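Protein data sheet
==================
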Amino acid sequence: QVQLVESGGGLVQAGGSLRLSCTASGRTLSIYEMGWFRQVPGKEREFVAAVIWSGGRTYYTDSVKGRFSISRDNAKYTTYLQMDSLKPEDTAVYYCAAQDSDSGNKSWGQGTQVTVSS
């Protein structure tokens, strides 16, 4: 099992920036990829961005391409989500996830609130 601890959420005006961090502990050697999802009340959790731990390939949902950037620090088992040019529609609870390379199961963080005011 992997444990995930997120930080970095908050309130920002439209056009501003925030950086989220997520640090993994536990079965870190089994991590295939880490990523971010977001959820607003009444809607399903949606994929935002992910990074494949070995090699560092990244991918994004279309609505954040060019504005968000995901990166990783291998030594710290930490992933970052740099969010620029934020829009009110980016407001959500953001969850970090880590996918296990053996089982394919995901571990989840507790979530961090991001609020973008217009």
Q: What stands out?
A: The mean pLDDT is 96. The two ends are 39 Å apart (CA to CA). The CA atoms of residues 31 and 44 lie 24 Å apart. The first strand starts at residue 2 and ends at 7.
